[in-house]
Amino acid sequence: MDAVSTIDRIEPTEDELHVWFTGADRPLALPWFWIRDHSRDPSAYDPHTGQRAVDSFAIDHGLRPAAVDRTDGAIRVRWPDDTPPSVLPDDLVAALHPAASDPLAPPPIATPWHSADEVSVTRVPYAEIADGAGVDALLDDLARFGFGLVSGARADEAGTTALADAIGYVRRSIYGDVWPLSSELTDHADTAYGQSYLEPHTDGTYCHDGPGLQLFVCAERTGTGGESILVDGFAVAETLRRTDPEAYELLTTVSVPAHYREPGVDLRASRPTIRLEGDAVVQVSFNNYDRSPFVLAPDRLRAWYRAYGAFHRLITDRTTWWLGRLEPGDALIFDNWRCLHGRMGYTGRRRFYGCYLNHEDLESRLRVRSAATP
Question: What is the pTM of this model?
Answer without folding.
Answer: 0.84
